[in-house]
Queue: 4 jobs
Job 1
Amino acid sequence: MTTALLLDLDDTLIVEEAAAVASFEATARAAADRHEVDVARLAVDARARARELWWAGPDHPYCRRVGISSWEGLWCRFEGEELDGLRRWAPEFRREAWRRALTDQGVADAPLAEELGERFGIERRARHEVFADVPAALATAGVPLALVTNGASCLQREKLAGCDLADRFDAVVVSGDLGVGKPDASVFRHALSLLGASADGAVMVGDSLDRDVEGARAAGLRAVWIDRTGQPRPDGVTAISTLTELPALL
């Protein structure tokens, strides 16, 4: 019998990667008002350049440990004393990602690069979206719920608020508050302690086989992989394509 349900956030409950892609595209279109550019290429290049800069950035070891992605770095406010370094570096990072992407097309326009760096955050904040199956799944779960997500605490909580999910959980666990992220077993154990639940009665649902499924299993929980994109399903993994399938597994 299931006594607690833990859920991932990004691309499990809310649209994340598709929202980021759309935000890159919308930001790139703004550049076309000033220069002749290949908008689709600019969007792809900006994402690639951001990733390069992120991996080479001064705080990348920390970001990797807690699970802050490069595209999240393009719009996160990095609130909190522990993120001072990232907050100071962020304007340069955002500007440089777009400057390099523009340079790839022979465009040298530093003011535009800075403008695009700020615009991306506006575009992404306009794209908070919950998957259609989420409200009913949360409302009918019938057990204590915990959100367990990797990322900067301020940004993940902003996403929750933007999607009207902030008050739907009995506990919210963000890796940025702990200093370590999934798949580390301590993250799942912390969520269970907040719920007053044991691992043997808990289920974790998420879209990452490594972070959510294998991480939860290592902590002694049952795990369900939500595969919304039709990927090949590994043997021995309980998988669903929509949260409407979840009650039958609980």
Job 2
Amino acid sequence: MSEALRARLAAVRERIARAAARAGRRAEEVTLVGVAKRQPADAVAEAVRAGLGAVGESYLQEAQAKLPEVVARLAAEGLPAPRWHFVGQLQRNKARHVAALFDVVETIDAPALGAELDRRAAAAGRRLAVLFQVNLSGEPQKGGIGPEELPALIEASGAWPALEPVGLMTLPAAASDPEASRPTFARLRELLAHAPAPPRGPRLRELSMGMSGDFEVAVEEGATIVRVGTALFGARD
């Protein structure tokens, strides 16, 4: 398991580097988030030992069981925990637990959700980075706001002192050809370029887009965060 995972991590990083070079960018501009849903704690800990600095989870209940185990294993070896990203759809009634566990929440798509997460983060004495999820595919099963709603959501974030808005996130429509995602990624990049600055901080800078099947295209189109699961961890249980 260890050697195979390390080899996959190296391969993903090499692919990111080549994609960045094609776009005239540096590989260091791209954060690799290893999406570990349905992966065991030992695999996550091994990936962190191999140098993975950010781990994403989609399901709160799974994360509540797994994250403390991963952190304890790493701490026993004198290793720091990764930066934890919540990348699943967030419901307001889960905000308290997400605020306690995660460092970054990538799926804010409503003023009320942001306000509840802010309240819970403040109560826990934490400050979280957040991304606004934009639905560019028009698929109702995907979370996210429409592009026309983005300015109002950014404006609403001025009332969230415990949250730091840092960027935008999207999920393109599923496609077998990675090139099919390119227009969506390009559109999110344009939205970021023209988005107003949050009332409480600097302009948004992060673009979280691209997964195992299309992250190279995403990097070519400006992604600063890619969320890679199966290409890194292998098939899920």
Job 3
Amino acid sequence: MSGLSLLAAVVAFVPQLEHRLTQDRLIALRQSARSEAASLDELTAEQLRPASPELAHVVRNLQRRTEARVALYDAGGRVLADTDPDTKSPGSGQLQRTQDAALARSGARLAAIVDGQAVVVRQERIDGRRYTLTLRKPLNDTKAAVSIVRSGLPLATAFALVIACSSGSS
């Protein structure tokens, strides 16, 4: 009976663990986006354009600090900078860029889990112009942690059953 109780407790615990870990990742990414976006304020209007080395530097630094894919769009949805190395490849990340560009045009803000990624979309005002900063971070580490817990369940349950049976027969 103890083994079944343990199994039921762990089975109920795993989805809560997964939810908590993903929400924590999302909150951390949102906080990082908020604090790191201040570096964009240091750029001039001339530097806030496609192929600007200064903008590319700021966006790459933001990527390194957050470990997320970072992109910056103007109010019309045009990509100004994107840390996706395949940005130039047709079809590579195109759906995400299309979604992000639509969010940029709409002026929407977002912090959500989308297709296994923590996604944060922030609107920034720089020199009176609106820009959209998007960060997308895969939740692979969260999935791996939950997978480890799930794969350990049968062994933990068997071990608990052995202990329960041996203490019950004593």
Job 4
Amino acid sequence: MDQMHKGMADLEKILEKMGSIAVACSGGIDSAFLLAAAARACPGKTIAICVDSRLAPSGEIDSARRNAEQAGVDLVCIETDIFQNTKIVRNHEDRCYHCKKHMFSIIREQAEKMKIQFFVHGVNMDDLKQVRPGLKAAQELGFLAPLADAGLAKADIRMLSRDLGLCAWNRPSQSCLATRIPTGTEIRAKDLYRVDRAELFLKESGFAQVRVRCSGAKAVIEVEPSMLGKLKKERSMMGLDAVLSQLGFECVEIDPEGYCQA
């Protein structure tokens, strides 16, 4: 048995030991795969819970709903106003910790109301190699990371998800919109909105992996390195500058290095 399939077998053993499971869901592949695996291991005893905040890119909640439907699991979606949490809005270096604590506290509270025994999230082995302050908050709140515990990395999860026929298997990775705002700059609703609209425009123009970094009135666009030529060539034709100008960006730059996932 190769390492990937051993990891899948280990994941199933881990999940089968849980009496009931609440999966913290986004629209991404990691939580989609974990949800599908949990539903198979604990049929009828798995629930998906997501938090709808203004930090999620457009389409993420709809994707979470599709993932839950495909797994045959009910999805509980809870709205929250992150602008009531000053520790998130001030956007200091510890923002990710406070954001995760805010979101996962909501998920845990809902799970406990439903008498769920275990809370899990889709952290994988690659995530553990990165600086992610939010992982500490998840651990403090008792969330387990079965994918990482089973030794599964992102590439493994994509391939296993493809084998399972999951619709999210090749979905580009996403991150919360707050990551587009420079650390130390207060998070404002209007900035999140224009970043989200700008990224949505680029995605609809054929650029799957996109980040629009917002620094005041300046937007710095990141796309996959292989798509840089296309973006530069079609920039005028697609009306990029005009669209971003309407969103309040006075200066639009294209990052020459392209998008690189940390």
